[in-house]
Amino acid sequence: MTVAIVGVIPGGNAEMDQQMLQQIGVSPDSRPAGALARFAGPTEGGYRIVSLWESEEAWNTFQAERLDPYFEKAGRPMPPVEVWQVDTLMA
């Protein structure tokens, strides 16, 4: 089942987001397995990231293999995310 992942990086910005993407090896030409779409932009107090995944399992794999090590190396915890089941998707 498709899921949306919603999170906010407190104090984050576009430059930080681009650096993170580069360090974890994600680009429009190199998307992780199961990733369908990603949207990111400023919000009050931080930087919001919304991504769509083919399944929660695909998201969990990406988080464990790329995000968790990135945040551990940065010396800070990964911000909490909301996992939201997507019943309808129009693109």
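That was protein one. Protein two is written in the same sequence-then-structure order:
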Amino acid sequence: MVRQRFWTHFRPWFFAVSKVSGVIVGYQIFDQACMYFHYAPLNIADVVMAATVALFVIGTLCVIWVWGEWCWFRLRSLRGLCRELKREFVNHRRTPVRTARSITGTMV
């Protein structure tokens, strides 16, 4: 009970802090790697540009994903229509041709 209550209250805070600190620690590690390999340090304009490009790329990928889902949905309904048309075509071809003579014979 106590553990469940602790996780209920602590988990959202833990995820929020880990997301923020993860970005900060990731940037610091990246900056240390740049200094180790003697690259020029990043300034704020580079960071903002990289974030803008990343946001644009993620948005573009989301648009492509949504478009693919929409196309798949439309094709699924189109496949159902094609299946019904094929079934009707096959049933129409298999129906026996009715003639004027009855099947059991003629009455006298």
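The helical segments are 2-36, 44-94. Keep this in mind for the problem set.
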